[in-house]
Task: structure prediction
Amino acid sequence: MDNFDLVIDRKDSTKWMKYRDTDVLAMWIADMDFKAPQAISDFLKERSDSGDFGYTDAPDELRAVIVERLKDSYDWSVEHNEILFIPGVVQGLNTVCRSWVQPDESVITAAPIYPPFLKAPETSGRKLIRIDTEPASRGYQYPLFALRNAITAKSRLLLLCNPFNPIGRVLSFSELREIVDLCLNHDMLVCSDEIHCDLVFDGRTHIPLAKVDERIEENLVTLISPGKTYNIAGIGGGIAIIKNQALREKFLAASQGVVGDVSLFSYTAMISAYRDCESWRRQVLKYLQGNRDYCEKRVEEIPGIKMNKVEATYLAWLDVRGLKLDDAPSFFEEAGVGLSDGEEFGGPGFMRLNFGCPRAILTEAWDRIAQAVDKHFGNSHYSS
Ligand SMILES: Cc1ncc(COP(=O)(O)O)c(C=O)c1O
Result:
């Protein structure tokens, strides 16, 4: 049984380096403060002990475990040759924008969204059309109306994030159905980033976009990776599943000579993650769900902060507009908690809190936030 309560030293991680020599708790970038599964460390060690670090091709075993996993988890049938390996999912987003969209065509995405979705079209020289996801009474819904209105003859690609970072939604079949219908009717391609698909709470089911309608599979790349789920993002490695041969070739041609090969350690870690770590995944999911519930409880007691139900991921999207802050990131950092600024996701007035950490750190973070909010209202609100 893994001990997720254990506080480990992560001072050399990007996450904690940002706050080196300070007392700020790092709760921003999306990796977790847990040790990765022991099975992955053991398998990497075995590979490392072989001393063979020459060029390597994607192992057949990796393709086999991915095919099996997709079949078992989602009843989704994928052939070995439809799987491409990439150094990371963000690289996949960028390659799709470059290779599938002409310079005079546009890319649509719904914000708030993981920042590379907003950057990839423009750094690729393609036009971004951003639609906005409005919070509704039942939590966020995918902005289908806005999508319908945004599509023009020049719209070529939809970048979809499901489960949806940062708002934590697992899109429902009916939402996905409408998205698919709109894309099919307007001959749009889709890039579906499903990197958080294995971190879904409350017994919900993730539905791969590919499973909604087999016709969309011909216009689709699905991006996945074990990086988030098994906490191995620093090792790198992602998976692009493309059924359509012409689209697959375009994707490969755009990567040729520009994107480096996937490292043999990435392949090794990916095999072990998908083959050996299902029990670890179930345990971490349970722990994260407990952390999610704990965040909800704390938020209820704090005036000025709201949080919608996190259905997946380990990221809470906090609505802090009620605090009426001039500079929200600094407010939280001064309180001793380093969060991600919602503005970078296209959501000003919101902050993203990463609850993938031992409960003791999470408790301390909420204590600090509660105290800072008390003081804030004590000074500015209640005294007036
Ligand atoms: C939706 C989403 N896609 C991609 C990534 C990053 O993937 P990679 O590190 O494989 O580029 C993240 C990281 O948080 C993410 O949330």
